Amino acid sequence: MIQEQRDAKGNTPFEPGPLEDWALSYVLSKSLDFKRSPPPSIKELGHMELPIDCRPVRPAELEVTSAKPKSVKQGALLSVKKRAEVVHKFWHHELQAAELMAWAFLRFPEAPDELRLGLIRIARDEIRHMGLYETHLQELGHKVGDFPVRDWFWERATTCETIVSFLAFIGMGLEGANLEHTERFGSWFRGIGDVRGAEIQDQIGREEVAHVRFATRWFKYYTGDVDFERWCNELPPPISPLLLRGKKLRYDLREKAEMPKPFLEKLEAWQPEAAHDPPPCSGS
After folding, report:
1. How many CB atoms lie within 10 A of CB 108?
2. Are 198 and 154 within 8 A, CB to CB?
3. With contact defined as beta carbons under 8 Å apart, do 182 and 246 qualify?
4. Which residues contact 1 (CB under 8 A, 6 or more apart)?
5. What end-to-end distance do the CA atoms of the chain give, in Å?
6. Is the pTM value of this prediction over 0.85?
7. Low-confidence residues of the chain, pLDDT below 70?
């Protein structure tokens, strides 16, 4: 819980509301059950100056690794254990996304209330997606914590120094790429007969469109346009557009998310000049 803080004169420099309280607790909680719990259904914002720059506390059930994941082939998903490992990875992507929405809500208190409340709404979606993945993980005979996790999103996102950078990287970038990743993995799951796994990918892919549109609209609000070069410049180094797109761009879904065609054409055509980190196999 956020503790009341006072300056030397006894004044309270910020008055956190229940959403601020929840957001900080969500990032710092050691309880897996709390990580599964959605934010309170309120729209009250406190007045605070708390530029938080911290990493989440991982529940005891989770083993964190720094090892880079190997790429996944469709054939490997025939193994129930390998499929469960992939589903577990997706679950953890959703957890990081929920935590990062809470982090950004606190980190950028100067952002418009509508934007900050939107971050909380998206966090609620990410937590619900966690539930979908966890249920399927159990159907595959495994549980949360059976596989190590890598906090790749946290390693990069907390270097975003502005809300525009955060929107560019997380909302337009990772969530944008997930429009392609969910289609690919949905096809793979369906191809090996895991209908429920495919349905979850389909559902999350559909719901991701609204998240990308949210980020795109606010990016345009701040910058005046959805310009590809400006977007690239807002990405935290060493992130490149290569990491933020699937092998085959989903023009239909990205255009529903209000990414203009010239932006998408440049995204599809972009080529790296040097090697970069490999992308995660699916986003939030």
Report:
1. 22
2. no
3. no
4. 21, 25
5. 26
6. yes
7. 1-16, 47-53, 274-284
